[in-house]
Design brief:
alpha/beta, Quinone Oxidoreductase, Chain A, domain 1, Rossmann fold, about 25% strand, binds zinc ion
């Protein structure tokens, strides 16, 4: 079978490989599930791995099959799989509990404290940019046929679901918390999915991006789902509170770290700021009003939390939001799937888009590996 792979730590090494098709017997205890890959999303993580910024090959291999944003159809199940059958649609989770930390041992590997982690398509395990993969049924989430067309968005959404779940867990300290307003910083594919998830929870949502709103598809999508879009070129997040009031929840996903300090000052009393950008650079910022920010956090019981990766429960929450959104705003999620690549052999097209995101204005680029 065909797969798209890189040689980790070697720049621009993305290439096609021929591999043996896996089989259900590769997983022990009869819990194996063979999945025919239908669609795989491509994102900044794949671009960064191809840029040799990170990525580790599995033991015994000098290449790593890419792909973590997956959607497929069950082709065969092992004898001890009762929860899935041939023909079911599934999405696989990404991180596996292979580490030594207590969190791995209790199945909360998304909170691992180990430096070495095991993530399909990213670190030490092959990914899903292949015609087939095999996985333990424990790591597969069943997808209703009604959302098959957009289920490739579930993996990126799972990260957001984890962030929102952590926020509500933390806010339980307040005994009563009825958040009404939220700001989402960044309206790329992660930001738009966050806007969606918050709208499904009934928040009044403000989306912020750098681009002017007029003629900008991402801004139009914000408004089509009942959110308000503003350009930070005109109004900073902090300034926006003069117009809209402070926000009960702020979700940061711009990749531009200085904005965090702005976001901290836009938070309401008892509010929570969720940080979800991986900023691997060495950018610094000054002119931070540290007394003011510190006082706001202390006197206003404000909170801030970082979030990464996702567990099975967050994928399951995501299935519910995708289904609800498709019912309430039919076709909205489909508009996010802007760039389709037909067949894994055309991987160069996908990387051309990922490397020139400004030019292509892509929201989500994905491979159609096989027809639904
Ligand atoms: Zn991704």
């Amino acid at each position: 079978m065909k797969a798209v792979a890189v040689v980790p730590k070697k720049q621009n090494s993305v290439h096609l490989v021929e591999m043996e098709k896996p089989s259900v017997g590769d997983i022990k205890d009869g819990r194996g599930v063979l999945v025919e890959v239908l669609r795989v999303g491509a994102c900044g993580t794949d671009r960064e791995i191809n840029n040799a910024e990170y990525g580790v090959a599995p033991k015994g291999f000098d290449f790593l099959v890419l792909g973590h944003e997956n959607f497929g159809r069950v082709a065969e199940v092992g004898e001890n799989v009762t929860e899935l059958e041939t023909g079911n649609y599934v999405v696989a989770t990404v991180r596996r509990p292979r580490g030594k930390s207590i969190y791995d041992q209790i199945g909360e590997q998304d909170f691992t404290t180990d430096d070495k982690y095991y993530e399909r398509g990213i670190s030490r395990l092959h990914g899903y940019m292949a015609e087939y993969y095999v996985e333990d049924a424990d790591f597969l989430v069943r997808i209703p046929p009604a959302i098959a067309e957009i289920a490739v968005l579930l993996e990126p959404l799972s990260i957001i679901e984890k962030g929102l779940k952590q926020a509500s867990d933390i806010q339980e300290r307040l005994k009563i918390w009825h958040p009404k307003t939220a700001a989402v910083l960044g309206v790329g594919n992660v930001g738009l999915l966050t806007v969606m998830a918050l709208r499904m929870r009934g928040y009044r949502v403000h989306g912020f991006g750098r681009d002017a709103g007029k003629g900008y598809l991402n801004a139009e999508l914000c408004e089509a789902i009942g959110a308000i879009y503003d350009s930070t070129a005109e109004t900073t997040i902090e300034q926006s509170t003069e117009k809209y009031g402070q926000y009960d929840l702020v979700f940061e996903c711009t990749g531009y770290s200085p904005i965090v300090f702005d976001a901290m000052q836009a938070l309401n009393e008892n509010g929570i700021l969720i940080l979800a950008s991986v900023t691997g650079g060495d950018r610094k910022t000054d002119q931070v009003p540290s007394d003011k920010i510190n006082q706001m956090f202390v006197l206003g019981n404000r909170a801030m939390v970082g979030t990464v990766n996702a567990g099975r429960e967050h994928f399951e929450l995501g299935v519910k939001d995708l289904t609800l959104c498709e019912a309430m705003h039919p076709g909205w999620l489909g508009r996010m799937l802007t760039h389709k690549i037909s067949g894994l052999e055309n991987f160069a097209e996908a990387f051309e888009i990922l490397n020139n995101s400004g030019k292509f204005k892509a929201i989500k680029t994905y491979f159609e590996v096989s027809k639904i």
